[in-house]
Every structure is written in structure tokens, then in C-alpha cells.
Amino acid sequence: MKAVKVKGLYFTYNGSDVLKGITLEVEEGEFVAILGPNGAGKSTLLKCIAGLLQCSGVEVLERSIQEYSRDELAKLLAYVPQRIIPGFMTVFDMVLLGRRPYMGLRPSRRDIEVVTSTLKKLDISHLALKHSNRLSGGELQKVSIARALAQEPKILLMDEPTNNLDLKSQLDVMEIAKNFVSSGGTSIIVMHDVNLALRFAERFIFMKNGEIVADGGKEILKPRLFEEVYGVKVVIHEVSGVPVVIPLHKHSLP
Ligand SMILES: Nc1ncnc2c1ncn2[C@@H]1O[C@H](COP(=O)(O)OP(=O)(O)OP(=O)(O)O)[C@@H](O)[C@H]1O
Asked: Distance between CA 235 and CA 232 in Å, rounded?
């Protein structure tokens, strides 16, 4: 089944076209990285898929996104924004918000169990009772991811989830996304770190100026593509069987 289908999607901010006819299909079980320069439209595309911007031409699990109620959609799809604003609530309560679509007036035993196990999975159980406005940027980012996972979605959308994270936490987050995919989920992640994307994702979508300029597996990752997309010369070396993209010192193209 198609997890996400986008057909001829245009999006305009203040009269200027930010997405210019995006067409895209993501099958269930895919791990997709969306890459491209600043301002290319990556976050806008992700927000359209998440149903946060009013767009036509987006389907989630083969139904138009407009046909879902907020709660129905939240059970299928979770979105981790670039930044969340910490509230005056504990980490536990923030993650519990992810259970909102399932909850009545009070959380059930299962809601509590899901939150507890998600905190454990992200290695942040020790923060459970800490107020979220007293967290470091990286800790807050993990709380945001935990809240999304607590929704038990089928599709996980994350916008630059490894920003603010130290080296180990970056790998942890990508590992979590990979495990999510291994257990049947679909993950679409906007990111800038090409090498991190390369280690974990299976499909790479490059955007530039509101359009998709390349879409495919590792085989598309050629120096010419990076020149075209970023205007930067790179070399690609293999290290321990993994291709690594290295921008050159005198990188600017004439
Ligand atoms: N709320 C908004 N109002 C007006 N213009 C916006 C808004 N959000 C984004 N834009 C513009 O839309 C364009 C695409 O932005 P978007 O955030 O989707 O790009 P991006 O590829 O995710 O960039 P980055 O890598 O810097 O996060 C940019 O030119 C940006 O200035």
C-alpha cells in the first residue's frame, strides 16, 4: 500500500511558489530522506504531508488527507517539527500528549505503559518528572520524538530531528527511525547531514527551488548531483563499506 502519495502539489506563501508541482509516492516500509539546500521547500512539503498546511493532492494510506479527522490522522501519522516550544509541564506529560487521540478524559493503563516504554526506548526515563522548560536542546528534541512515537503512528515524519543532538544521540535517533521502519512503519525525514542520511535511509529525494531534482537509492549519489543541487564540489569515498560525501575545500563552482 502507498503510505503517502503527492500529486502535482503546488504551495504558495505570500504569492511566491514554494512547491512547484511535487509528485511523489512512498510505499509502506520505506525509509526516505529528503535533502536539499536551505529554502528548497523541504519543510513545507513535510508540513503538507502532515496535514499542517492546507494543500490539495496529498493522500495518506490511499485516502485524501482531508477525509481524515484530526484524531484519525494522528493515529496514522506523527510529525516531529524542527523545534518545539517547551511548556510548563513535565516530560512525562508532554509525551502523554502523544496519546491524546486515543484518550478519553483520563489516560488508560495502556497510555501510561506506552509513554513509559517510549521514554525508556529513547533513554530519557530519568527526565520523566523534569519540567520541559528546563531541558537542554537535545533533551527537548528527544522528548519531541518520544511524543511522536507515543502516537504509535504508521508513518513518522521528522524535520531535521538530529539537529542539536550529540554524536551518539544522532545515531540513536536514526537507529530509532530505522527500527520503526523495520517493524513495519514508514519514515520520511528531512535532513541536512547527507552522510547520516546515507548510513540509514534507503531512498533519497533531493529538492531545489520547490522541485524534486533527484529521487532514488544510493546509486544516484554522484558528485555531479551535489554540484547541481548545492553548487558544491564533493568527492565520495567508501569507508567501511559506506559511501561518505566529502565537500572539497575549494568547493565553490565557477
Ligand atoms: N510561514 C512562512 N511564510 C512565508 N514564507 C515562508 C514560510 N515558511 C517558509 N517560507 C519560505 O518558503 C521557502 C521554503 O521554506 P522551507 O522551510 O520549506 O525550506 P527548507 O528547504 O525546509 O529550508 P531549511 O533547510 O532552511 O529548513 C523559503 O523561501 C521560506 O522563506
From this structure: 10
Residue that the C-alpha cell 563552482 belongs to: 253
- Encode pLDDT of 102-153 as tens digits: 998 899 999 999 999 999 998 999 999 999 889 988 899 899 999 999 999 9
In this predicted complex, what is the ipTM?
0.97
Q: Is the pLDDT of residue 249 over 80?
A: no
**pTM, two decimal places:** 0.93
Q: What atom in ligand 1 is closest to the CA of residue 190? A: 22
Q: Give 102 Cα–ligand 1 centroid separation in angstroms.
A: 32
| Distance between Cα 49 and ligand 1 center (Å) | 15
